[in-house]
Design goal:
The chain is of the alpha/beta class and 476 residues long. Helices cover 45% and strands 11% of the residues. It has helices spanning 16-26, 37-56, 66-78, 93-105, 110-114, 133-145, 161-165, 170-191, 196-217, 221-232, 245-253, 272-275, 307-313, 317-328, 382-402, 427-438, 463-473, and strands at residues 80-82, 88-90, 155-158, 264-268, 284-290, 340-349, 356-364, 411-415, 455-459. Strands 3-6-7-5-8-9-4 form a 7-stranded mixed sheet, with helices on both faces. A hairpin with a 5-residue loop joins strand 1 and strand 2. It is globular and about 60 Å long.
Length: 476
């Protein structure tokens, strides 16, 4: 296994909320660490500190610009422990390192203990005996097509939306920021239209804003093209995980701002394992896996029957989650609270026809509101739940945009009522979060992010959930 502390750190993308999530979670001693999830998060925290130390102490031959140095200073300020009153204390890095060294010696995780596994070696999950035939069938799929597993470049980890948006061409995200400021200005103006004098002022201001926008739109295309060509040179590309080399290139060859696909939304009332075979064979498919944040495959080994498990029984995808655990995550497993994992090319199989279909897989988790053990604390208010759930959804939508092949005109994005089954989230509330995401501008898009894709399907075996979603999405 690779050294967990050598994990890629998206330093320029780190936010205070992301760091708070990690620190808070690793310090909770009352939660069972089913798959060494807290150890995985602690390794990332230590890697962040190592990276910050390297820059602070000038230990690298790389020269860092002022913006990077300023952000490093912010990150250092965020690397603190906070109590419930907001008091901040410095983290004891020596103690944290000793804790990690103790954790790394532990071999028996919750899964191994549950199945009474004695010889605990990497990938022991593939050798547990006496499991359901559906699991044995999926092992045959893995042996047939993924006997050597996934390459590191096929497995991606995103910690938050910012990490993904930072992969876009700079001029794309700058233009978006200008538009968002204009929108905020217009929103303020709209609130002052109760009086005629204010109406006149708002009209004049809107005219001026429109003139500025028109001037921006008239900016020579050649200048933007030159910026893109310059960025394609290695020394001008944004910092990125090696697994995202394909993404960085694709976002410059097919900028999101130039994508203007149909964004057609359809509602498919069948299982995900069947829906993928209704899509043209030459199309790219991206599937949202309603995942478990702390357990690779959720209840797969126990033959649970939720959406994630059904995906894994009917594909070779479980091996990709094991490769995340024993590869990128250094022997543990944790989906970032505000991010996700992204897997290239899992293969679905149809037992009846013998056909197979490749899809990409978004591995994202909702909050579990039913009292079952989970890795991260649940939000304490509806407002906090909405804000944090929106952050999760924005991240997996941005990951789908980033990893789309070509311009998205031949891409099917398969979503669904994530978190509304065993995790107990309200269907209407989840639908409204989806609506906010789908109508927003992400990754430098000029309009709703739906235009980044030709087709978006909401797939569910619960027809009533799709009916509710359709009502909510009707005005998109």
């Amino acid at each position: 296994m690779p050294d967990p502390l050598s994990v890629y750190v998206p330093l320029d993308s780190l936010t205070e909320e992301t760091i708070d999530s990690i620190i808070l979670t690793i310090q909770q001693s009352d939660k069972r660490d089913w798959a060494f999830s807290k150890r995985t998060l602690l390794a990332f925290l230590l890697a962040i500190n190592n990276k910050v130390n390297e820059i602070e102490n000038n230990e690298s031959n790389n020269k860092f610009d002022e913006q990077t140095l300023q952000h490093v200073a912010k990150v250092r300020q965020w690397l603190v422990q906070k109590d419930r009153f907001g008091k901040r204390e410095q983290l004891n890095w020596n103690k944290l390192r000793k804790t990690y060294d103790q954790m790394i010696k532990e071999k028996e995780d919750g899964t191994a203990k549950h199945f009474a596994v004695k010889n605990i070696e990497p990938y022991y999950e593939l050798t547990i005996e006496g499991l359901h035939p559906d699991i044995n069938q999926s092992r045959e799929y893995m042996s047939r097509f993924r006997s050597h597993g996934w390459e590191p470049k096929e497995l991606k980890i995103y910690w938050n939306l910012q990490q993904l948006e930072n992969l876009c061409p700079k001029h794309e995200t700058k233009a978006k920021q200008v538009e968002e400021k204009d929108k905020q200005n217009n929103d303020v103006n709209n609130q002052t239209k109760l009086e005629k004098n204010e109406e006149t002022k708002a009209e004049v201001k809107n005219e001026n804003t429109n003139e500025i926008n028109d001037q921006m739109k008239e900016e020579p295309k050649e200048e933007v093209k030159c910026e893109t060509i310059a960025e394609l040179k290695d020394d001008n590309l944004p910092p990125h995980d090696p697994s995202d080399a394909d993404v960085v290139k694709a976002l410059r060859e097919h900028p999101v701002s130039k994508r203007n696909n149909a964004g057609q939304i359809n509602y498919i009332n069948k299982g995900i394992e069947k829906a993928v075979f209704d899509i043209p064979e030459d199309a790219q498919i991206i599937v949202l896996n309603f995942a478990n944040e702390r357990s690779h495959g959720g209840g797969y080994l126990r033959h649970a029957w939720a959406q994630e498990e059904i995906i894994l029984y009917n594909s070779d995808g479980y091996r990709s989650l094991l490769d995340l655990k024993y590869g990128r995550m250094g022997g543990g497993y944790a989906i970032p609270e505000f991010g996700l994992a992204y897997v290239r090319d899992i293969c679905f199989f149809d037992k009846e026809t013998g056909k197979n279909r490749k899809t990409d897989m978004l591995v994202s988790a909702c909050y579990c509101l039913t009292g079952s053990p989970q890795l991260y604390d649940n939000p304490k208010t509806d407002e906090e739940w909405e804000r944090k759930t929106l952050a999760k959804f924005n991240a997996f939508m941005a990951a789908a945009v980033a990893n789309t092949k070509d311009d998205g005109s031949n891409t099917y994005l398969l979503l669904g009522p994530i978190g509304t089954g065993a995790f107990g989230n309200d269907v209407i509330k989840i639908g409204k979060i989806f609506r906010k995401v789908l109508t927003s501008k992400l990754m430098g898009s000029n309009g709703p992010v739906t235009k980044a894709f030709e087709n978006i399907w909401f797939v569910s075996t619960d027809e009533w959930k799709n009916d509710e979603f359709e009502k909510i999405m009707r005005s998109i």
